[in-house]
Description:
By secondary structure, this protein is α/β, with parallel strands linked by helices. Helices cover 45% and strands 16% of the residues. It folds into two domains: 5-182 and 373-389, 3-Layer(aba) Sandwich (Rossmann fold), CATH 3.40.50.2000; 186-371, Rossmann fold, CATH 3.40.50. The protein has helices at residues 17-32, 48-52, 78-98, 112-118, 133-139, 141-150, 159-169, 185-190, 198-201, 223-234, 254-266, 281-285, 302-309, 323-327, 340-352, 354-371, 374-389; strands at residues 5-10, 37-41, 57-59, 101-107, 125-129, 153-156, 176-178, 209-214, 242-247, 272-275, 290-293, 314-317, 332-335. It has a seven-stranded parallel beta sheet with strand order 3-2-1-4-5-6-7, sandwiched between helices. It has a six-stranded parallel beta sheet with strand order 10-9-8-11-12-13, sandwiched between helices. The protein is globular and about 70 Å long.
Amino acid sequence: MPAKKILFINHDASRSGAPIILLNFLRWFKENSKIPFRVLSKNSGDLDQDFQKLAKLNFFKRTGLFGNAPLNPALLTKGIHKVLNQLHFRHLLNELIKDDIGLIYSNTITNGEILKFLSVMNCPIITHVHELEYWIHRSGPSNLEKVKSYTKLFIVVSEAVKEHLVINHDIPAERIEVIHGFIPVSVLIDRLDSANNPRKDMNIPDDAFIVGSSGMETWRKGKDLFIQLAIAVLSKVGDMPVHFVWVGGHPDSTEAYQIRHDLHHAGIENQVHFVDHVTNPLDYYNQFDAFAMVSREDPFPLVNLEAAALGKPIVCFNSAGGSPEFVGKDAGFVVPYLDINAMADKVVLLAMNKKIRKDLGSRGSAKVADCYDISVGALKILDVIEQHLA
């Protein structure tokens, strides 16, 4: 008998944590398993072609007449849209039912609408949760109830996420399995471009100590806190050349204007650099001397693993998600939540003490290779899939 297929569901195909971890996993899965699979994405995104190279890709939301041909919405009445959507969903469901799907793997907790739609297929559903309260709240209570109702097992990326689901959303602990986030270490290291010199592009002196960070959002990721950290550190280091680099963002956004306002009035425009979205962020991370994880909430940020893999010590807040689970006492420092002065003190310690910086960076790099490489995490997910597919 041919193996039943797995349907992997993406909430979108953007260059963000959850889609990237799924894409990396599917690349590994295709090489290390004979189980056939296909992908359903709620929304289109930059990674569409990457997913299409691995498997059949459908979109949950209709993007054209029958899901592929672009149409001008202004030319269609509301009634026609409704009919076309009904045809699209009927065609999609029929196609999936005929394809002998034996397991649904939903990548994020925001796919409640899709899980309800697919419930008629009557096969087990695994939901991989990459979110904490911010995104769970934004997705709405109706979404969460659907996910809880249809999900057989939750895979979560950190103990922090498990605790949150158990305490705040009444999901039984026995329905939750922790599999920490992971990265393809060797692949990422191979992508480093030794000829690329972001330090020179940003006019940062060769002898300057660089504190780095990364993220696309503002409030949750803490871009404003990064500025506060820069002010605090610069007030403590005297004449020592220290620069701050944040990778990721949109230069024309309201938040970008607000940040430029703060930099100007704080008088640190020459020491703090905000880099827009780039395709080679690791080339920037490789120039960092320390990584400041200033997120207010982050389930288990992959950028921690990427920075640590490159030997960069990390400073993060406690009670802000899964970062402390990785950093511990051997890959950097964990400071009290939103205590900018405490974080600044640790950054200054790293800047002043090369041995501590090197030791923490080396231990963090070894920990990523041993415990958080894709070969470790993906194998755990494969084991779960095989159990439930059987």
